[in-house]
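Hi V.,

Quick status before I head out on leave. The structure for the redesign project is tokenized and pasted below; the design run finished overnight.
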């Protein structure tokens, strides 16, 4: 049932036994707002109140029709929640063994995994054959509240949770369960460490986080490239030692910085030109982590002989493991005082202005736009 705006605002401000959700029916359809009763929790479920959810680039790809999702659905997966209730038999502790209580602020892995299937046994729980992916599930009677663009979310069995330290701001916490953890996985998989030369392609949330994490691991130099001068310059506040902008940048640009090429590159844009530049910029035996390509694109011509002779490794990183979420929270606990992560999140929109929030998220001026179900708009 659709609601007039004044009814939507009333429902947002008075969440009792019901909750309001923004339903996505497809890129050509308007958003629907539905108010539904909160169901009784099943065994091993947790009910959380959504405090905030930022708009990830993959959400925009879905809304704009570049990426398919089950329909209808509740999008949103960069969520911070507050525990409201526990179902029977629920384990009251997080990944680090810290106790969980009603009222705790938490983040959780984007994929709930069974821990028993083929991929779970091969340390790829994010590809679990029975995986439940928040913000990507069909909206149905079985799991009606599974995304962040809603007043509440129900965490299913197999969800990996981390309780947030009070020192982490709400703004810095939102991307933890997606962008920050994905970069933590990229750091682990590519092996970035002390004195490595690192090339970061893209200065969005992924790229800026990559610069800061590489800096904290002792990497140097750290070069960040973005087509936007404003974003490229922002990277210098997140640990980049050198920044470049413009489409005319090529592998010869870093000759004065690193004679042999980069030890490791991270491609955080999803664009073929950036991937090509990353491959050309690596040293002999270098590694390129591919993080940004989360929507279909044109094939990229690659000269295989050059990869073989130069011993180049291309590594795809999609989502992350539970240990990466723990690492992301630990990183942010110490990094927020050094790097302006909270400043990357804004403006803030209430849930009933989700369409305006998506429009704001399309602007390159906004790294992350935030949706807060109980909020009024702020800029």
């Amino acid at each position: 049932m659709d609601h007039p705006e004044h009814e939507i605002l009333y429902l947002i401000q008075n969440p009792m036994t019901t909750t309001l959700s923004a339903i996505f029916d497809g890129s050509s359809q308007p958003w629907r707002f539905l108010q539904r009763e909160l169901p009784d929790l099943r065994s091993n479920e947790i009910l959380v109140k959504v405090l905030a959810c930022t708009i990830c680039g993959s959400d925009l790809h879905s809304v704009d029709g570049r990426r398919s999702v089950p329909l209808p659905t509740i999008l949103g997966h960069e969520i911070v929640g507050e525990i409201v209730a526990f179902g029977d038999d629920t384990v009251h502790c997080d990944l680090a063994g810290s106790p969980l209580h009603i009222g705790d602020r938490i983040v959780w892995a984007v994929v709930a995994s069974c821990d028993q299937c083929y991929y779970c046994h091969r340390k790829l729980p994010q590809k679990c054959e029975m995986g439940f992916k928040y913000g990507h599930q069909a909206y149905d009677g079985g799991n009606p509240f599974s995304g962040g663009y809603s007043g509440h979310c129900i965490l299913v069995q197999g969800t990996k949770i981390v309780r947030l330290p009070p020192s982490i701001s709400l703004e810095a916490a939102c991307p933890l369960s997606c962008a920050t953890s994905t970069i933590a996985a990229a750091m682990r998989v590519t092996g970035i460490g002390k004195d490595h030369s690192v090339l970061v392609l893209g200065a969005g949330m992924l790229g800026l986080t990559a610069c800061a994490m590489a800096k904290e691991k002792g990497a140097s130099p750290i070069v960040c490239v973005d087509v936007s001068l404003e974003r490229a310059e922002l990277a210098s506040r997140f640990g980049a030692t050198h920044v470049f902008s413009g489409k005319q940048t090529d592998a010869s640009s870093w000759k004065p910085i690193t004679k042999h090429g980069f030890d490791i590159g991270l491609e955080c844009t999803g664009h073929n030109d950036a991937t090509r530049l990353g491959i050309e910029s690596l040293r002999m035996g270098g590694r390129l982590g591919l993080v940004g390509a989360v929507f279909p694109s044109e094939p990229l011509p690659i000269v295989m002989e050059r990869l073989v002779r130069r011993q180049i490794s291309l590594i795809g990183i999609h989502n992350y493991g539970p240990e990466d979420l723990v690492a992301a929270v630990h990183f942010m606990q110490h990094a927020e005082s050094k790097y302006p992560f909270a400043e990357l999140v804004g403006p803030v929109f209430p849930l009933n202005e989700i369409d305006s929030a998506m429009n704001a998220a399309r602007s390159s001026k906004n790294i992350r736009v935030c949706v807060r179900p109980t909020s009024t708009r702020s800029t």
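Above is the designed sequence. Residues 40 and 87 are 8 Å apart (CA to CA).

G. will cover questions while I'm gone.

Best,
W.
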